[in-house]
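Consider the following assembly input.
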Amino acid sequence: MPKTIVEKILSKSSGEDLKAGDYAFADIDLAMANDITAPLAVQGFQKIADKVWDPDKIFIPLDHQAPADSINAAENHKMLRKFAEKQGITIYDVGEGVCHQLMLENHVKPGQLVIGADSHTCTYGAVGAFATGVGSTDMAAAFATGKLWFKVPETIKVNLTGKLPKNTSAKDIILNLCGKIGADGALYKAIEFTGPTTKQLTIPSRATITNMAIEMGGKTAIMEPDKKTKQYTGTKPPEWLKSDPDANYIQEIEIDVSNLEPQIAAPHQVDNVHNITKLEGTKIDQVFIGSCTNGRFEDLEAAANIIKGREFSKDVRVIVVPASRAVYREAEEKGVLKTLFDAGAVIEGPCCGPCMGGSFGLLAGGEVGLATSNRNFRGREGSPDAEVYLGSPEVAAESAVQGVIAKPIGDS
Amino acid sequence: MSRVWKFGDDISTDAIIPGRYLTMNKPEELAEYVFESERSEFASEVEEGDIIVAGENFGCGSSREHAPLAIKGSGVDIVIAKSFARIFYRNSINLGLMVVVSSEADKIEDGDEIEIQGDKIVNKTKNESYGIEKAPSFIENIVQNDGLLNYVKKEML
C-alpha cells in the first residue's frame, strides 16, 4: 500500500502496517518537556512509576521562565533539577536555549518519532522527524513506558515553487499558508511541505515553517530529508523516508512564492494575515526578535543586515533573544549582536523570552508589539488590551527603525 | 441542570489561562484566573456543574495542561464544542475533563440550562435536543479506565 512519510514513520515505530485513521501505541525515540510542562509530567509520572524508561532519551530544558522570574518558577526549576539528577536525565539549564532549538541542534534525527510537551514540537519535521506536541499527562505515560498512543493523521500536501523575492523569507511563506487555510485548517492533520522551494531552504528556514503547523491545528509538519538534512544532523537519512508517489493526501495546496509580499498576522489571530502594504504605518511600541520560530542565527543576521548603519527608533523598545548558546556565540563572533546592540536593542540570554508572556517583555494596555514569534492571541504577551502583530525578522528590523510597521528596504 | 457559558470559535489556551500564571500547578489556584482576558466575570460567577459551550477549535494553541486544569478547578466538568484543538482534546481526556463534540453547539446560547442525557444534549430552556459525536472506541477505553495514567499502569507496566 502506498504511504505518506508520516504513515511510514508511525508504522515503523509501532511495528504495525498503519494508514491514516488507525490508532496504535508506538515506541518513542526522544521525549522533551520544558519548565512549564515538566512539573505536571513529573507529578503524573510519580503516581505510576519510580524509574523512567530510558534517561538517555529524555530531555528537560529550562527555557520558558529562565532565569526564574518568580519564586514559584525557581521552585519548579529546583524540583526539575533534582528529578533529572535522580533519574539520570539531561537537563538544559537556564541560558542554554529554547527547547526546540536545543533538540534540533543536538538530538533529533530523520525518521525518528519524537514527542515534546510543548505545542511547537512539530518544528522537528524540518529534519524529517515525526514530531508532535503532547500534554503533561501524555508525557508522564511516555516517561514511564517509552510508548504513547497515536492516531495516524491524514496529510495535507503543500507544494512550494518559485524563488523568494528579496526581503522575504520562510516566515512569509508560513504566515501566508496560515492565512490561506485558517487556524483550524489542518486540525488533527499532518502537513507535508514539498516542491523545489523546500530544497532551496536552509534547515533553520525549514524549521521556521514546520514550527507553525500547530497554528493551523496541525498534528505535525514534515519535509523529506535531503543533503542539507544529512549535513545538519550528521546522519544519512534512511532510504525509506519519503512519501510514495501515489500516496493518499486529503488536500493539496500550491504556493508559488515568487511574488510573495512580506506577510503580517494582525491581532489577535495567527490566521488574520495580510500583505504588509495593508498595514504599513501602524505605530508600534515594542519589537521582539527571537523565539523557536525566528530566533536562529540567520534570523538575527537578516535583521542586522536590514539595520546596518541605521538606528532603531527611539520610540520603540527592541528585545533580541538568540534561541540558543550556539546561536548567541555565532551571532557574537560574526558581529551580528554588536550591530543590533549598537542600533539600540536589548540582548537577552537564550530563552523563550516575551513569546509566551511569562518572564519579561510584557506589553501594557494599549501598547502595540511586533514579534517574530508564532502566536498573537489576546493577552499572550501581556495586557489583554495590548495588540501583537507577527512578521519576519526583516520586517521586525525595518519596522523597529521606522517606528511603524514598514516594508524592509535594507539589504537582507 | 447546568447553566451554559457560551464562547465563540478559536478560544486559545492563552484565553483560557495566560502564560504568566503557569507556575501554578493546582486547579483551584489556576481557576482564579481562568478566562481572565476573555470573560473577566467568569471566575467569580461560575458555579459547580456549569457547562462551557463553544464553536470551532476550542483550546487551540499551547500544550499546557494548565488550561483543562483551570477549567476543572472552576467547577466545570463538561466542555461542548463544534470541534476541539488536538492537544487540548487529548489533555482533557487524560485529566478526566469531559469533552463533547456536537455539530449543533451553535444552537445553544449563553445562559441556557442544559444537561447531557446518554447520547444527546437536552436544552431545557429551549426544549430542544442535539446530537453528540461518539468518541472512537480507542479513546473510550482510556476514559473507561479513568484516564491515561490508570490505563498505562493497568495495561502496560
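Chain A touches chain B through 53 residues (CB under 8 Å). Ask yourself how this observation constrains the way the partners meet.
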